[in-house]
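Researcher: Watch the backbone:
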Amino acid sequence: MSSLVELDVSYNHLEGQVPKLGVFASTAGFKMAGNWALCGGAARQRLPPCRPAKTTTRPGHLLLRIALPIVGLALCCLAVLFVLLRCRRRRSRIADTTARSMINGNNYPRVT
């Protein structure tokens, strides 16, 4: 974009560092009113200096942010599955006991 003479980016909520070369070097060709988060650029533009970039998060922290919820969800699912299987097994034992007592004749009067 070497042939660009004028650039108006006013009130676009832009942020970040402004380049120092090309149309950005002159105050006449670059209009940026209303973009309070811009920084750096040529000295004539009177923008605040840019702060050093924040360091990126370490891969370990990213792994914890992803792995910890997945492991927690898996443990919750296993707990629910365990409870459901225990209830099903308990019902099965109760039904089994009832069926055996009916076969043995405990529910009917004995006649000789």
Notes: The first helix runs from residue 59 to 104. The CA atoms of residues 94 and 100 lie 10 Å apart. The two ends are 111 Å apart (CA to CA).
